[in-house]
Design brief:
The chain has 154 residues and is mainly alpha-helical. The chain has a two-stranded antiparallel sheet. Helix 2 packs antiparallel against helix 3 and helix 2 packs antiparallel against helix 6.
Length: 154
């Protein structure tokens, strides 16, 4: 057997192993996601990205340079970084959900006048959704399934 044949066989064999482990990984990820405000953290993290991006972006539209780098650069750096940190904190520390949710709501609202309309409305909208989801999320009770068993239809 040639070397290329061994590499291809090795790749396909490894792919089969990955496919057999994928359902277990998905089930474990679903359980992990159900025990914390995952979507709130994701929306909060996503709110920080446009707020950080627009003040430092240099875009060319038809040969015309477009720069939104104003005095809001420092404010958007602080607000965007805090939103990124709060998004990670929501996924890693679910017990901080109320504090992180209120802080996300306040930072999203402050970013509207400070950071180029809150990342051209994308950061504000995502931050308000993420903060609201964080404040509304409740940890699952001990008797509730977290793996989606209630939706299995059996």
């Amino acid at each position: 057997m040639t070397r290329t044949g061994r590499v291809i066989t090795g790749l396909f064999g490894r792919g089969r192993q990955l496919l057999t482990r994928a359902p277990g990984f998905r089930r474990g990820f679903r359980t992990w996601r159900g025990e914390r405000p995952f979507w709130a953290g994701l929306f909060t993290f996503a709110a920080g990205l446009p707020i950080l991006y627009w003040p430092y972006a240099n875009l060319n539209l038809g040969g015309i340079p477009l720069a939104l780098s104003t005095t809001s650069g420092a404010g958007s750096l602080v607000i965007g970084t805090l939103l990124l940190a709060l998004g990670v904190a929501l996924c890693c520390r679910p017990h901080l959900r109320v504090f992180a949710g209120i802080a996300t709501l306040l930072l999203a609202l402050v970013s509207f006048p400070v950071a180029n309309f809150g990342g051209l409305f994308l950061g504000v909208a995502s931050g308000l959704i993420g903060g609201s989801l964080a404040c509304a999320w409740l940890p699952p009770q001990a008797d509730q399934p977290t793996t989606g068993e209630e939706c299995s239809g059996s």
